[in-house]
């Protein structure tokens, strides 16, 4: 039985990846942080009905001793480093924490693996945010990076270190440069989920408007379930390489609002307000990925369209709010 260790298993991608690996017959170990709200830890795993099928080990990406202990105890064949302070907007408020977790945290786990389990295959969750101030209208593995937030700077450091560990020590280490991916398990602070949650509240008469920031930013949005499949495929190859994972289509926040409100029979222009307080100190205006390499080498293609994603998320949020009378 193949053993996988997932950091960030309680997040959106960690939960879907755990589900995928369980379907494939893996033993799945997840790293979890101690929380004072222990009753809600693992909520996404519970939602997917797999909480009791994964082994949760306590640890923190910033504490290398905990990583060494967990790797030593579980001897993983594959390690997926998904843990991060992943909210771009928060990274300006907590730049040091973001650098420590999202940047140095990746080196902690690479270093722990190098010392005690160098044969394990390693996946690093790199991000399209690293492209930042766009140098080319369509971004692929050769497009130069230009980080625009403390989060992107930290991810760029982790990305470079992963490549460096591969080249220096011959470790099987891959970076997936994933563009935005969403689902009903997306954190409520991210714009798509904030919108679908807002639509649900308005539809059920629990709110009368939704306040957003920049409606003109464009993102290449896919579905998280499709994207975790690409992570797994990267670690099944003969050679470790980096891959862009994207749909090749870009839409604005305004477009996503229209799709989500329309699905609930509402007109977005009646309910969406904007506030300068939600604008970022530096914005990433446009992301549009070229996943040709992932398509040709991994045989990966996204399945879900943005319309389907918006529909699934709105339905899930209406169901959630309806069950909380
Ligand atoms: P989430 O924010 O949903 O999940 C982040 C996870 O990291 C949570 O499980 C969180 O645990 C954990 N975590 C945070 N800090 C620590 C720490 N110090 N030690 C251990 N675990 C920690 O992110 P997503 O699932 O959306 O994304 C997964 C990864 O992919 C992230 O690295 C993200 O930056 C990256 N990424 C995401 C994209 C997207 O569109 N979703 C696109 C490109 C990259 P807890 O539950 O305790 O907070
Ligand atoms: P992003 O996702 O920063 O791309 O990072 P987010 O959904 O937070 O923002 C997308 C765009 O929407 C604009 N926006 C708003 N964003 C939020 N959160 N809230 C608002 O009210 C709002 N109004 C407009 C933002 O300015 C931005 O342009 C996500 C994360 O998952 C990262 O971890 C990951 O690396 C990247 O995607 C790829």
Automatic annotation (TrEMBL):
UniProt: NADP(+) binding residues: 209
Enzyme Commission code: 4.2.1.47
GO biological process, one term: 'de novo' GDP-L-fucose biosynthetic process
Cofactor: NADP(+)
Domain NAD(P)-binding, residue spans: 5-313
GO molecular function: GDP-mannose 4,6-dehydratase activity; NADP+ binding
Keyword field contains Amino-acid biosynthesis: no
Catalysed transformations (reactions): GDP-alpha-D-mannose = GDP-4-dehydro-alpha-D-rhamnose + H2O
Protein role: Catalyzes the conversion of GDP-D-mannose to GDP-4-dehydro-6-deoxy-D-mannose.
Family: Belongs to the NAD(P)-dependent epimerase/dehydratase family. GDP-mannose 4,6-dehydratase subfamily.
Classification via PANTHER family: GDP-MANNOSE 4,6 DEHYDRATASE (PTHR43715:SF1), GDP-MANNOSE 4,6-DEHYDRATASE (PTHR43715)
Record protein name field: GDP-mannose 4,6-dehydratase
